[in-house]
Specification:
two-stranded antiparallel sheet, Rossmann fold, alpha/beta, 17% strand
């Protein structure tokens, strides 16, 4: 596993060349690595291996950068023929998904109901999105589709929203399902920007 751990660190530097591991939360990094490998020894946050990851916290703490590094790492492992269905991941911003709906309607969203997916910057998308007069809360719709497939595909998110802010934006129905879909990892501290 040493070689894989080295590439995990390299994935961060590939995404952000100025990444300084001394400034990173070691428990978070160890636990993400443990989540990928289902390794209890490093899983200091006790993440559930059957749930996706929700990185939340204020601006500038490295949530998106960490998720992009995780994406790099998991896609690298998938290319190396590791046979774990948790590996490999698409990553799109919530705004990109809403814009896809605005341009092409619901058919543009359906492809994102399968495969592992990270929705970056949840909460920053336009609500509702509109496609030729049809208005829809795109992420609410997508999370419902993905909830039904949660045992087959993993969903991950990054957000500045708290759990208390999820329900008003996406409904109690989705907020309740988030508890079953995600491990919640809070990024704390001052902005790194």
């Amino acid at each position: 596993m040493n070689k894989e751990a080295v590439y995990f660190g390299a994935a961060f530097r590939k995404v952000e060349p100025r990444f300084d591991p001394k400034l990173a939360d070691k428990d978070i990094l160890r636990s993400i690595f443990a989540w990928v490998w289902k390794n209890d020894e490093y899983n200091t946050l006790r993440l559930d291996y059957n749930k996706g990851l929700c990185f939340f916290g204020t601006l500038g703490l490295g949530k998106s950068m960490t998720m992009r590094a995780m994406q790099q790492y998991m896609n690298y492992l998938k290319r190396r023929d590791f046979k774990d269905p948790r590996l490999g991941m698409w990553m799109l911003s919530a705004s990109e998904l809403a814009n896809k709906f605005a341009i092409d309607g619901q058919p543009a969203i359906i492809p994102y109901s399968v495969d592992n997916l990270c929705v970056d910057e949840l909460g920053r998308e336009p609500l509702p999105a509109s496609n030729y007069g049809t208005k829809m809360n795109v992420l609410q719709f997508l999370f419902q589709l993905r909830y039904d497939k949660r045992r087959t595909f993993f969903t991950h998110i990054t957000t500045n929203l708290t759990m208390e802010e999820i329900a008003p934006k996406y409904g109690d129905y989705i907020a309740d399902r988030f508890l079953e879909m995600f491990n919640f990892i809070e990024f704390k501290g001052k902005s790194l920007r």
